[in-house]
Amino acid sequence: xxxxxxxxxxxxxxxGLAANSAAARYGxxxxxxxxxxxxxxxxxYRPQTGPRHGAPDIGAGRTPxxxxxxxxxxxxxxxGKTTTVGAISEIAPLTTEAEMTSAGIGIxxxxxxxxxxxxxxxxDFGCVTIDHSLKLYLxxxxxQSRFGFMWDDLARGALxxxxxxxxxxxxxxxxxxxxxxRAGLPFVVGVNAFDGQVALDLASIRWALAISDQVPLVQFxxxxxxxxxxxxxxxxxxxxxxxxxxxxx
Length: 249
Description:
Elements: H1 16-19, H2 22-26, E1 67-75, H3 81-88, E2 97-99, E3 118-120, E4 124-131, E5 134-140, H4 151-155, E6 160-166, H5 174-183, E7 187-192, H6 202-209, E8 217-220, H7 225-248
Parallel strand pairs: 1-5, 1-6, 6-7, 7-8
Antiparallel strand pairs: 2-3, 4-5
Helix pairs in contact: 3-7
């Protein structure tokens, strides 16, 4: 991240306190004489009737700020979580990528089709405004099992999750699906189409992952903004359906 630079304060005027007085700064109006003796008493206090200082003013036809919604982008190692967040984020995504070294050989396997040379060591972050009333904040989880302790913190306050799956490496996706099933958090399984294709059809993937028919299973391209948008909208629909059913109960 870029370092934060202190604001450029103007230099202090020469002459000490006298040079910093109102008369020195603004001068004396033409035709006026410097005040002598006792100053004119201040006007009586009148409380302000407008909005409190710092409080949002949504009156007078102003549109209220969009509602923030936190979603997770999770999955195994090298399935395309960072790519997914970066493709949809309207800001420069925050990433914590580190170069993969020889120490990870045999531990971190990105797959034969992947040219991955970096790995997420903390999280990814991005955001996207859906419309004037809704804004998504996306948190990408690290894929390696040794960073699993961070998932509880990242999942706190989230309304749903997109579990990204590589159809050629389904074994890496079981821990993520088990996590959200145990947590009771609504999730959608998104099969990332590497090179525009998947190794198995969706019905076979659903059977292999042993997920119920109530869990949406979609195919998307993590590199394509519109494709990622459609997958996230399914997550939102899933979360809204869960919230509606809980309210009825």
